[in-house]
Amino acid sequence: MKCKRCRRAEAAVDLPSHHAAFCPDCFFVFFRRQVKEGIRKLRLLAPEDRVLVCVSGGKDSLVLWDVLMEEGYETEGLYIDLGIDGYSDRSKERVLAYAASRGKTPIVVELAKEGIPIPETARCARMQECSVCGTVKRHFFNRVAAEGKFTVVATGHNLDDETARLLGNLLHWQRDHLARQHPFLPETGGGLVRKVKPLWRVSEVETAAYGFLKGIDYVTEECPLSFDATSLVYKESLSLIEEKMPGTRIVFYQGFLEPSNPLRRTAVDAAQADAVSPQGGEPAAGAGPMGEDGEEIRGTPRACASCGAPTFAETCSYCRLRERVRQRRERRAGGRG
Amino acid sequence: MKCKRCRRAEAAVDLPSHHAAFCPDCFFVFFRRQVKEGIRKLRLLAPEDRVLVCVSGGKDSLVLWDVLMEEGYETEGLYIDLGIDGYSDRSKERVLAYAASRGKTPIVVELAKEGIPIPETARCARMQECSVCGTVKRHFFNRVAAEGKFTVVATGHNLDDETARLLGNLLHWQRDHLARQHPFLPETGGGLVRKVKPLWRVSEVETAAYGFLKGIDYVTEECPLSFDATSLVYKESLSLIEEKMPGTRIVFYQGFLEPSNPLRRTAVDAAQADAVSPQGGEPAAGAGPMGEDGEEIRGTPRACASCGAPTFAETCSYCRLRERVRQRRERRAGGRG
Hints:
- 2 copies of one chain form a homodimer.
- By secondary structure, chain A is of the alpha/beta class.
- The first copy, chain A, is built from 12 helices and 10 strands.
- In chain A, helix 3 (87-101) links the parallel strand 4 and strand 5 (107-110).
- In chain A, helix 1 (24-41) crosses helix 8 (204-213).
């Protein structure tokens, strides 16, 4: 099959949802246009932005960084080393190699050095690893952005991620999560940087094809701590529909984002709730206005007594987690002495 | 495995969404309780109601009739012979046999005799068979109910039907359809009888098990004119989720029905729109406030000049369809003469 755009080269990527098939070069043009369109439609980024791109070593975040650089945005990569044996080393390697190939050095935060590695913290706090990871990452997104004078944080969530999350939120009518789900969460007072998801219009398959054809070497293994079976089921279920009715995912997500959709509250409310909720923007069964550690997420946040981050409690979730690890370590050291 | 209710007999039906397994007798009790609970929760029926049960010959409608009779409701069955070669005869046979076994004679409407058999009408009107069928059925539901002084019309839609339709409406954000989707559509002025779906809480598997264990002989073939691939894909997609997360369907549908759900308008508006829209309550891509034959569904309906049914046009959709068949037959007869 010939490329539907240049009509000369052989098509390498078939996209039924766009009634199209492209050769590699034309696919790059198409993909970047889709991302630019996603940025333009929701005004995610301005040309003068300093963008902190959160890179995990997976395809989505590396592809995001690649496209934003090619589009001329001023970017730096942030890699958070979660302290997970083997997996974290392999991920970091990919991030460093990719960054080096583009003449960049990413900002690296090592949670082990910060005294809050995910596996130990989850054990100490008796919480799910993914929940702990979300809280810790959000903390560093805001902190590194503030320290480095970044105007915006970008993450690599794609259309499949967003629609799976939307479906899960709808199946359980999680109104708070629905109100908070958006590719644009604006900056709010008190140290909350703007957060955007520029890949919201492109699918997982498209992102993988872009990474593969661009020769980006990314980790394909999933995080060993997070086998998020729930979100995989939603993805599979939507893939089944998408296969029979190409284009359903984007119609579903765009219709959800319509400002007239009664399920949407204002993005400002959403951003505030997102920043201080222990569950943050991730879907979690049964999460309401009260966070799982009892921190209520209504009203106006104040500064954390320990680190200054916005919180509705005396100290923020991050500092409380860190304190639990510290106390446990102290008890253990005491026990040994 | 033993029955979880009586703990004596062998379990015959396994219900993961209820964390239960039942022997046939206990399953009958369970199933009837579920239906009663669905009726009670949404006040679908009152003890003094005269219920017109629409029976197609399939499992859902015959099971519905069976349960309503066992629960002591005053019921009559309505069978509409669609005039589809072979299929209609086989369906009618099952309805008549079931009715006879309960000492009943159903009301039978033969569309061929009424001058509006579905296959010919669809050809004459150049419309999809399912769309024609919906219009014609709704007409007779209201007409037979009025003639027979029935206070309510009951149809056999189950939880799988309703959630598949809900998912389709959500994926395309069909706000009009979402507002109109409810197991209870109240009676409104001008000849619109109340319409209810008492099986909304029970799944397809549960209904099939009830029919099978009760020895009800129903048609298993699908209507040959309606291979509704879309709704089957939605059902399959939800089955995949239900299998991994039993109970998701009922949570999804109950959450949708919550009066606080911002996607719901008042049921009265919904019923009015339902009665006069050519698409009626069925999901149809791209259907808005304007019906496909241009009949606007806003405002107050008036009486059809021909049959007196409520409509926003001069004559109702049913009469216009019937007129098209008559004209075409006349032209054909003229052509031959």
